[in-house]
Amino acid sequence: MTRVVIVDDHPIVREGLVAALEGKSGVEVVGVFSTAEDTLSGLSADVVILDLELPRMSGLDAIPLLSRSAAVLVLSAYGENVEEAIRAGAKGYLLKGAPLEEIERAIATVAGGESYIDPRLASRLVTRSPERLSEREREVLRLVAGGQSNKQIAAKLRISERTAKFHVTAILNKLGAENRAQAVAIAAEKRLL
């Protein structure tokens, strides 16, 4: 069971998420807060769904603190802060208005230690980098940015899981990244995505 905390200053968003996620197999909403400060005291969750526009402490400022004990999944109306949020420690980034199935997929992905970027943002982030990454590596990077696991990448590209892992490792090495989320952030910052 994935324990989820929701942090948003809009009651309608909080209530809507609780109503949508309650009763879903594998998800238990264990806390609902309107500020980051309230969340920090006694956080006991696997995933924190976090808005960035919060009173007092912003979501961006809270990410490094929250990510020490839970995977942070940003749920924002805006897509401008993806790179900043990932660099701060967020595992995922969704736009408000994402369908419930996508929210569930993102929760499961970040709870499993992988990164998840809203496909609407990933496609905007992903660009060409002929000097650094091969065509296949760019293809793999787009899928990584979309939250795909090595197994999913392998199936989609019809390659072995070992080959998918090899490509991901090569991408991390070329970009000097420690993990998949950081690779996406670095590539976006360098306009490689």
Overall geometry: globular
**How does the major sheet shape up?**
6 strands, parallel
Note the gap between the termini: 34 Å
Top-tier CATH class of the largest domain: Alpha Beta
What structural category arises from helix and sheet content? alpha/beta
CATH superfamily of the largest domain: Response regulator
Number of domains: 2
- Number of DSSP E strands: 6
Summarize the structure.
This protein has 193 residues and is an alpha/beta fold. 49% of the residues lie in helices and 15% in strands.
Question: What do you see in this structure?
Answer:
By secondary structure, this protein is an alpha/beta fold. It has two domains: 2-118, Rossmann fold, CATH 3.40.50; 126-189, Orthogonal Bundle (Arc Repressor Mutant, subunit A). 49% of the residues lie in helices and 15% in strands. The protein contains ten helices and six strands. It has a six-stranded parallel sheet, with helices on both faces. Residues 127-131 have low confidence and may be disordered.
